């Protein structure tokens, strides 16, 4: 069921319930008023007859004749007068007697003074009437033909009005919901035009500030993210293809040259060294791509635990020095550590080690002395790590792009690389709710500052 029809039916059902309650209140209120008024009229007619009987001493036969020919008499009227000892003093039509008074009824009237009841379609009343220091029991019954007819007309009018109102409400609700959901329909039509090859299309946000406008804005923002993601993936694949093609082409070329004619053992050794060097480059590139993919995972999919950064930095230092014996890595504690929580974070040990390795390796390989210094400090909320070197530095033009995957600045002639390390490090630090900043002067050195929230 479409939302348009569902909203229409819901709106119609709600209005129908309210209108039904309103109609029932009107109907039963009128029915109760009619009943009360007719009971009062019955009482008044019965009192008039009783006064003529007891006060004017009108004979019962004469009284019966008068009311049979009276234009004001009630339809199917019956009036009976008894004394409290259940002796009948007067009755309009003894031979009919639809009320059929009993001793129990008379006693109940004497006890309660007045009762109201129905005899089939007749309204009936019984009441105690005092006259000349003596009590009499009077009963009266009649059918309110005019009142019931008016009540029937009211019931028909309310029913017809209810049906017409519901139909009009359904029609108005359908038109209203169609108008209200028209932007959604337009949005659906526009969304159907958006494909992987047309991610630049956007849906109209309109000028409103309602929920539909918010939905359009949110959807367009999602499209922006998707477009950026697709563009990043295309760029990523293009860069990977370029980076992989170079070492693979070199390896293939060297092997093809070697296959054309025989070589001396020294030449084969040199060829093997070159191929092994290119293979190491491929391994390093594939490891970097794998780590970059891991850093792009959803945070919920990565295992986090408590990690002491000083111990992790010592492990990282040892691993870097093992791979590069000519490097020098200095770790400095700027403040005395009073509690472990001050330098402990909740994070993924492997990814943080990759990030720190990249920063230390960059500091060493771009410095003439092959040294990098790591300073550890902290404040109320964050652990602060500064990775410094006295190397060639980074130009202001390159600083704006150093965290872009596969970007290599003017320093690429000083050392080999693929432009993955810093972009990977930036992703890892932000994955841990931290920040990474850089300050550098050309020919003087560079300092990367990492801040991570501690426990």
Structure description:
With 455 residues, the protein is of the alpha+beta class. Helices cover 54% and strands 18% of the residues. Helix 7 packs parallel to helix 11 (421-431). The longest helix has 52 residues, at 3-54. The radius of gyration is 50 Å and the shape is rod-shaped. The two termini are 51 Å apart.
Task: Give a summary of the structure in a few sentences.
With 455 residues, the protein is an alpha+beta fold.
Strand percent estimate: 15-25%
Helix content: 40-55%
Number of domains: 3
Number of helices: 11
- CATH class of the largest domain, named Alpha Beta
Give me some keywords for this one.
455 residues, alpha+beta, Beta-Lactamase, Helix Hairpins, Heat Shock Protein 90, 3 domains, five-stranded antiparallel sheet, five-stranded mixed sheet, 11 helices, 12 strands, 18% strand
What is the topology?
Blueprint: H1 3-54, H2 60-68, E1 78-83, E2 88-91, H3 103-112, E3 114-119, E4 122-131, E5 134-142, H4 145-180, H5 182-193, H6 211-260, H7 265-295, E6 305-308, H8 309-323, E7 328-333, E8 344-347, H9 349-365, E9 371-378, E10 382-389, H10 396-399, H11 421-431, E11 435-441, E12 445-453
Parallel strand pairs: 7-9
Antiparallel strand pairs: 1-2, 1-5, 3-4, 4-5, 6-8, 9-10, 10-12, 11-12
Helix pairs in contact: 1-4, 6-7, 7-11, 8-9, 9-11
